[in-house]
Design a protein that fits this description.
Chain A: Belongs to the leucine-binding protein family. The complex is a heterotrimer of chains A (about 450), B (about 325) and C (about 350). Chain A is of the alpha/beta class and about 450 residues long. Chain A has helices spanning about 5-20, 45-65, 85-95, 110-120, 150-165, 185-190, 195-205, 220-230, 245-255, 270-275, 295-305, 320-345, 350-360, 365-370, 415-430, and strands spanning about 30-40, 75-80, 125, 145, 180-185, 205-210, 235-240, 260-265, 285, 365, 380, 395-400, 405. Chain C has 14 helices and four strands. In chain C, β2 (about 170) and β3 (about 175) form a beta hairpin. The chains are: A alpha/beta (about 450), B mainly alpha (about 325), C mainly alpha (about 350).
Chain lengths: ~450, ~325, ~350
């Protein structure tokens, strides 16, 4: 290759680099509510990330289109693609932080863990809706982090409670049972283990563990062979992304009774159960949001966002799917917190500190749900200064081959067991991260 | 003593006391091995003819499977989309030869290896741009592949055979036989072997390197398509599938980078070895050891034979 | 005219052997150091420091580490990510056992642990070569990643399974943890990277570097003239892993703030390998260029649509980003297989005779 071309290429690269560096970052505009959305539509977890991203964006867009924003103030949303990659997650945070964001939704346990200390110092709330650090439910120690409606430990306790229900109702019926736990071998999947081990001791069942390494997500035959050998009475799953559909298929393959196979709420996507075809029938997961398009709020999204082509969903049928609706719920919580903060402060354009107060005083009642067109979409939810999670009611849904069906009533996790563990874990986290700032934020009412 | 028992005695006791389960483990290992061998085959084909360790094989698998599913979703009958996909793989092969291989001829191995990683990035971006990142369901039935399973009562227990696994094994065997025949009996196959032995000598007797490269990349593309169908049927078709390419690396290392039978034997050794290891010894350390066990098995073989089981002997001269 | 060596005479061997024998180079490096130490902290935004400069410098150090092994000693390794992880976990453990000690001491000490692990996984290199060795280092990658998850002692039995950086100081300045200032972190990273680059440049010019290069160019020949292959290769693994380990510790302590085992996955190994090869095998300046190219370019591409006001979705930008990066890698390899460092040399060659080329 001639050296002239080499030099030219070098210069071109240098030129690109300089123009890029000189470009100033977009400035925040006054009179807007800025919400950055850390999403992932690429990478190995895109299958779960896309519907959530669509739901989150579409609900906020719907508020802009239908109501002209919240309290008359437009919401500006900006997606930042993380690819579920922690490096890019931090970059997204740093690049949007200067534009006065109200709140962050990391949608990855790894990114959440990185943002918790940073956001507490920068005074920006983090909403990790039913993921992230369970201990952050303790608002006294983590004033800036919120994880409603439930933590993983709530989820694990709810599944155990549900299993006991199936066995006749009382927890003592679990005695002598064998419960298998298959999980993504990462912080996410390992988090419920201490709780499950505690329960195994307390209620006399045996717990067998089947870790699935992240690079083996689509190749689980060994784990399921082990399941076949051990024949657990129930299987609990903590899966995400491509791990879920593979697990459902493998379970069907070894003819595991699907109605005894219960996943956490992150294993309940339509794309998780559908690939198994008929074999997936009967698979159950926990859930805390409604599924389907039969809610006025989803109809509004269809009218105001999807039909005018302002949504990124690939087809209208995907609106109302479980993870899509979870994204809607996520955005609904943020919108309600903004509303609460506006009422509390009397300001229209609130800042991150107001947003935090709004989250802490979030009180979503049955009436409010009805008003928002979400009756039955989620359980009423109330956060306090001390309790940033709420340990709210969940329900169990079952795959019927076509869609998810609600097969249980809303029921509560075992608050009395989980709460002390949460507080203990929060104290441990703070102890190992000394010096941890004392809560200085007032508990605004 | 307890540990020694658990390591050296207990696993074998388990194998003997539950023979039906052991048989199932062997079968699963065999099927995994065949599937690993399919991916490995793609690597070996290209390495043999051009000395390139084609890192893009994994994404080619995903790309082929996505094209197939994508075309079917547009309403094209699955079998016709399969044929069109073969065409797409041909276009890809020509493109790679023109844009990547030809300008990089005579460069060190590591540069070509890097170029295939660049190709991987390119295909990931292009694939997501065209098909989106959402996972898709493989059109197994439309491709006339069997689904469902049969259970046999055997050895006081039962053995479940998935029809798709049997089909995978049969198809893999046919493909290996066909490729073996192609390499040893046809004119092009002989030209391929000549190129593999010595590029310059092959050129001097009038073999067109460019043509040969298109052919091997095309063959690797077809292998990728079949692999994509088989793996897609086992889980789903998404970009996470490219991780399976990492499973092929210990396989080709074990079998030798240049040997087609090596890919098969390597696949089976790794497939069966890691299943037995994971199931009988994995629980001792908490399970989930498959990820690195395959590499350790390969490494153990390598320490005895540094060029793999069937690899060409490395002769070093000054 | 500007870059002319004519008339610069050396009067001693020491002057002839200097790292920068040409005056213009010395001025250039002084200017660059001045920019890095003075100008950038004065004018740069926190985003530029925290998301561009700090990661760029950390990746540079890791790239130098891998370059020592792959570029200078010819041993292909795909385990860089895991070796960086060893450094990070070692530093985490050290600082949680001795919280009062200067954190910079532990950052540098953590390299020793990864060097030890690197030597263990370097052992097969005596028998296995080329791509076969690359796969052996993949064994290290996957095994260590598994160990990071499975040995809870490494992350102090955290429920989250991740390591979290707490507030630590050096010389009375808070350097890590959420309250650490961006500028302070930047200076710490910059100082370590500059220092270790200087050490590497001297190490590689001496007998150590020469024996590495002899092994790379032909190991049998090197053995015949008295270079002991096992010792040299293991030394290369040790030095390389030391650099990677320090880079890994810095990555978590000065940049990310917390890390799950997946932060040290195979993708990180590939990222570093890209930087080495695009920058130029066997070149320290190339390590800087490669790291800058691979880290900064995607950040820039992400900014372009926003700067131009184009309504492109974030995900689409990311897809296009992949396409562009992939195409550029191939393009650069075709144009100049020896990487950006070689391009720089050619430019220097031209500068020498500019403006009157012959």
């Amino acid at each position: 290759m001639t050296s002239t071309r080499t030099a030219l290429a070098g210069m071109a690269i240098a030129a690109v680099a300089f123009t890029g560096l000189a470009t100033p970052a977009a400035q925040a505009q006054d009179g807007e509510l800025f919400i950055p959305l850390l999403t992932y539509r690429t990478g190995p977890f895109a299958g779960s990330g896309i519907p959530i991203a669509n739901g989150m964006a579409d609900y906020l867009t719907m508020l802009n289109e239908r109501d002209g924003g919240i309290g008359g103030v437009k919401i500006r949303i900006e997606e930042c693609e993380t690819g579920y990659n922690t490096q890019k997650g931090v970059e997204c945070y740093e690049s949007t932080k200067a534009n006065d964001p109200l709140i962050y939704n990391p949608y990855s346990t790894g990114i959440t863990l990185q943002l918790i200390p940073k956001a507490s110092v920068d005074n920006i709330p983090v909403l990790s809706m039913a993921y992230g650090l369970s201990a952050a439910a303790d608002g006294n120690l983590f004033p800036w982090v919120f994880n409603p409606p439930d933590t993983y430990w709530d989820g694990a306790s709810a599944i155990i409670k549900y299993i006991a229900e199936q066995e006749g109702g009382d927890l003592s019926n679990l005695d002598g049972k064998k419960i298998g736990y298959i999980f993504l071998d990462a912080g996410y999947g390992r988090e419920p283990i201490p709780l499950l081990e505690q329960f195994a001791k307390d209620y006399g069942f045996t717990l067998t563990q089947y870790p699935v390494p992240a690079d083996q997500m689509q190749n689980q035959s060994s784990q399921w062979l082990n399941v076949r050998r051990d024949r657990p009475d129930y299987m609990i799953m903590w899966g995400w992304g491509a791990m879920n559909p593979t697990a459902v298929k493998e379970a069907a393959k070894i003819r595991y009774p699907m109605d005894k196979f219960i996943g956490v709420w992150w294993s309940g996507g339509e794309d998780d159960a559908r690939p198994a075809g008929d074999g997936g029938k009967g698979f159950k997961t926990l859930n805390f949001n409604g599924v389907g398009q039969d809610f006025p709020v989803i109809q509004d999204i269809l009218t105001h966002v999807v039909e005018p082509g302002k949504s990124q969903v690939s087809e209208t049928a995907r609106v109302g799917e479980n993870l899509y609706n979870r994204g809607v719920m996520n955005s609904f919580l943020m919108a309600e917190a903004i509303r609460t903060a506006q009422e509390m402060t009397g300001k229209k354009v609130i800042d991150a500190a107001d947003m935090r107060a709004g989250m802490e005083n979030l009180n979503i009642t049955e009436e409010r749900l009805k008003e928002a067109g979400m009756e039955g979409f989620m359980a009423p939810l109330k956060l306090t200064c001390a309790d940033h999670s709420g340990e709210n009611d969940v329900y169990v849904q079952q795959w019927n081959g076509e869609t998810w069906e609600k097969v249980s009533d809303w029921f509560s996790p075992m608050k009395d067991v989980v709460r002390p563990m949460l507080v203990k874990a929060a104290e441990e986290y703070v102890a190992s991260n000394q010096p941890w700032p004392e809560r200085s934020e007032p508990c605004a009412q | 003593m307890e540990t020694l028992y658990l390591v050296f005695i207990d696993p074998f006791v388990q194998m003997v006391t539950a023979p039906d389960f052991f048989l199932q483990v062997l079968w699963e290992g065999f099927v995994s091995g065949v599937l690993y061998a399919l991916i490995a085959l793609g690597f070996v084909l290209i390495f043999k003819a051009s000395g390139v360790l084609n890192f893009a094989q994994g994404i080619m698998v995903v790309f082929a499977a996505l094209s197939l599913v994508g075309l079917t979703a547009l309403g094209v009958p699955a079998l016709i989309s399969f044929v069109i996909c073969i065409g797409i793989m041909f276009v890809l092969a020509v493109g790679v030869e023109r844009m990547v291989l030809r300008p990089l001829v005579n460069q060190p191995d590591i540069i070509l290896f890097m170029a295939t990683i660049g190709l991987t990035y390119f295909l990931i971006g292009l694939g997501e741009l065209i098909f989106g990142g959402e996972p898709k369901t493989m059109v197994t039935e439309q491709l006339l592949l069997p689904t469902g399973s049969t259970a046999f009562d055997i050895l006081g227990g039962f053995l479940i055979l998935q029809h798709i696994d049997i089909a995978a094994a049969v198809i893999a065997i046919i493909m290996v036989a066909a490729l073996g025949f192609f390499f040893s009996k046809t004119r092009i196959g002989r030209a391929l072997r000549a190129v593999a032995d010595d590029h310059q000598a092959a050129l001097s007797v009038g073999i067109s390197l460019n043509q040969i490269w298109v052919i091997v990349w095309f063959a690797a593309g077809i292998v990728a398509l079949v692999t994509g169908v088989m793996w897609g049927a086992r889980s789903d078709v998404s970009f996470a599938l490219q991780i399976v390419a990492f499973k092929a690396l210990p396989v080709i290392i074990l079998g030798g980078l240049t040997s087609i039978p090596g890919a098969i034997v390597g696949g089976l050794v790794i497939g069966i070895g890691e299943k037995i290891g994971e199931i009988y010894w994995g629980p001792l350390v908490g399970g989930g050891i498959e990820g690195w066990l395959a590499y350790i098995i390969a490494l153990a073989f390598l320490l005895v034979r540094p060029q793999g089981l069937f690899g060409e002997r490395i002769i070093e001269r000054i | 005219m500007l870059y002319r060596e004519a008339g610069q005479y050396k009067t001693s061997y020491a002057a002839d052997m200097a790292v920068f024998p040409i005056r213009q180079d010395r001025i250039g490096i002084a200017v660059m150091l001045a920019v890095a130490f003075v100008a950038i902290p004065l004018v740069a935004s926190p985003f530029f420091l925290a998301s561009i400069m700090i990661p760029f410098l950390i990746f540079t150090l890791a790239t130098i580490g891998l370059n020592i092994l792959t570029g200078y000693c010819g041993q292909l390794s795909l385990g860089t990510g895991a070796f960086m992880g060893v450094g990070a976990y070692a530093c985490y453990k050290l600082t949680s056992i001795f919280p009062e000690t200067n954190i910079l001491v532990w950052i540098l000490a953590s390299g020793i642990f990864s060097a030890a692990i690197g030597v263990v996984f370097g052992l097969p290199s005596l028998r296995i070569k080329g791509f076969y060795l690359a796969v052996a280092t993949l064994a290290a990658q996957f095994f260590l990643e598994w160990a990071f998850i499975r040995i809870p002692w490494l992350y102090n039995y955290n429920a989250s399974g991740a390591i979290e950086v707490s507030t630590r100081t050096a010389f009375g300045v808070v350097l890590t943890g959420p309250t650490a200032g961006t500028v302070e972190r930047y200076f710490a990273v910059l100082a370590i990277v500059v220092l270790m680059t200087w050490v590497a440049s001297n190490l590689l010019r001496g007998w150590v570097g020469r024996s590495f290069m002899m092994i790379r160019d032909m190991d049998i020949a090197a053995e015949l003239i008295g270079v002991r292959p096992l010792r040299t290769k293991l030394l290369a693994f040790a030095v390389s892993s030391f650099y990677c380990g320090v880079a890994g510790a810095m990555m978590v302590f000065f940049w990310l703030g917390a890390a799950e085992p997946s932060a040290f996955s195979i993708n990180l190994s590939f990222q570093i390998l890209f930087m080495v090869i695009l920058g130029g095998l066997g070149s320290l300046i190339g390590s800087y260029m490669g790291a800058a190219f691979i880290w900064i370019l995607p950040v820039l591409i992400r900014m372009v649509p926003e700067a131009l006001g184009l309504p492109i979705e974030a995900a689409t930008v990311e897809h296009i980003n992949f396409v562009i990066i992939g195409a550029l890698i191939i393009f650069i390899l075709i144009v100049e297989p020896h990487g950006l460092a070689r391009m720089w040399q050619i430019i220097k060659q031209k500068l020498r005779v500019w403006p009157f080329p012959y």
